[in-house]
Amino acid sequence: MKLANLYVDPLEFFRDEMAPGKTSLRAPTSIVTALLAVGMLDVYLTQHSVFGFLAQSIQVNTFLSGADKEMMLSQFQGIKPIAISAASFASCYPLFMWFAVPAFLASAAILLNRDYHFREMLRCTGLALLVFFPGQILSTIMLCWSPHVAYNPVSSSRNLGELATDLGVLSRMIRGGFPSATVRDLNVFGFIWFGVVLTIGFRQLYRVKWPAAIFSVWGIPALFYAGGLLVSHLGAMTF
Question: Against a cut of 0.90, is the pTM above it?
Fold first, then answer.
C-alpha cells in the first residue's frame, strides 16, 4: 500500500487498492482503531485544558469568597463527567462513518445500476479515513497548550450572577480562540479532503462518471446542510 498516493494521487491509490481480490478489512480496521485512540486522547487533552483553565480562572478571582469558589468548583466536578462523555461519543465519528457511509454509497450505486459492492466500499471508506491523520496529529500537539484569550472576564467577576454570565462568555472565547478554533478548522479541512478522496474511490470502484460520483458522495451532506438551514430559517420566521 503506497500511502503517499492517498495524499498526492488518490486516483492511483485506489486503482491499486480496488484491484480484484483486494477485499481485506485489516488495514481499514487498524486505521479506524488508531483514529479512535487519537480522538480519545484529544478529548482528554481538551477537557483537561478547558476545565483546568476555567477552574484556575475562578481561583484567581479576588472578589469572590472562598465558599463561593468552592461551590462553583464542586459544580464543575459534577459537570465534567457529562461533558467528557458527550465529547467521547462525538469522537467516535470514524466508527460511525466507516459503517454508515459505505451503506449510503452502496445504495447510491444500486440507483446508478451498479452491483452492491458493500465490502469493497467498506474497505474504500476505511482507507479514505487515513486522510484525517495529519490533522489529528497536529490537533493533538496543539491541544497540549492552554487556551489563549484576549482577556479573562471570570477573574474579575464580583458575584455569582456575574460569574455565571462571564463563564459563558469565557467559554465562547475559548471555542473561538487558539487552539480550539484551529483544531476545528483542521477537522473541517479533513472532512473536505475525505469527501474528495472518497469521491475518487467511489468512481474507481463503481466505474461511474464524475458527476454521478460527486452527486452520490456530496449529495447527502448537502441535503443535511440544506435541511439545517431550512429549519433555522423556519424557526426564525416562527419566533
Answer: no
